[in-house]
Specification:
By secondary structure, this protein is an alpha+beta fold. The protein folds into 2 domains: about 60 residues, Orthogonal Bundle (Arc Repressor Mutant, subunit A); about 130 residues, Umud Fragment, subunit A, CATH 2.10.109.10. It has 4 helices and 11 strands, in the order H-H-H-E-E-H-E-E-E-E-E-E-E-E-E. A 9-stranded mixed beta sheet has the order 4-3-5-6-11-7-8-9-10. Strand 1 and strand 2 form a beta hairpin. Helix 2 packs across helix 3. The model has no long low-confidence stretch (mean pLDDT about 85).
């Protein structure tokens, strides 16, 4: 299959959109792209976005937001990487990996996302795990599984809200403990309306 070549402007726009989604946590608007590319008219940016969609690098979701579908280096590195979905904010009541929650697909080394497992990426928020090496804005590589061992960092759903904490089981109850310099974060004791979605296997400090 012939590679879809990007022009210099298309590659620059894709890098901009990728960094905004991955690091900024939101999908840039047509006007955002026009401004960053120093275009006088949003129409020029729209044409550029449509080309990236046509070539399969982007997709527009039902809510109008952009979703990353392919990476600039995907074709060269595809044998050594696996595409992992990046999950954004999780609204109450919607599954973690529902299409509307997926901001994009990011190539991750198979040495981290090992064959045989299913993985997703989650953007960390807040400072409740800063002493565990997880800072606000980091990307967390999570292996999907419904159980955990004591001391493992888990992504848990509590009443449909996602949280990242250290897992402990004590006297028949589960305790999700923060690891933070901020003492306002307290352990969460759970027994019902609780579900482990996966184990944090890697923290990605910077993703350029």
């Amino acid at each position: 299959m012939e590679k879809q070549r990007l022009t210099e402007n298309e590659a620059e726009a894709l890098r901009l959109i990728r960094n905004t989604i991955v690091h900024g946590g939101y999908s840039p608007s047509v006007r955002d792209v026009a401004s960053a590319m120093k275009y006088r008219s949003p129409r020029s940016a729209l044409i550029l976005l449509n080309e990236l969609i046509k070539k399969g690098f982007l997709k527009r979701k039902e809510d109008g937001k952009l979703q990353l579908r392919k990476d600039l280096t995907e074709q060269e590195d595809h044998a050594r990487t696996v595409d992992v979905p990046l999950v954004g904010v999780v609204p109450c009541g919607t599954p973690l990996l529902a299409e509307e929650n997926i901001e994009g697909y990011i190539p991750i080394s198979r040495s981290l996302a090992r064959p045989g497992g299913k993985y997703f990426l989650l953007r960390a928020k807040g400072d409740s795990m800063d002493q565990a090496g997880i800072e606000d804005g980091n990307l967390l590589l999570v292996r999907q599984q419904p159980s955990a061992e004591d001391g493992e960092k888990v992504v848990a759903l509590i009443d449909d809200e996602a949280t990242v904490k250290e897992f402990h089981q004590e006297k028949g109850v589960v305790v999700l403990k923060p690891k933070s310099k901020n003492k306002s974060h307290k352990p969460i004791v759970v027994s019902q309306n609780f579900m482990i979605k996966g184990i944090v296997v890697a923290t990605i400090q910077k993703f350029d």
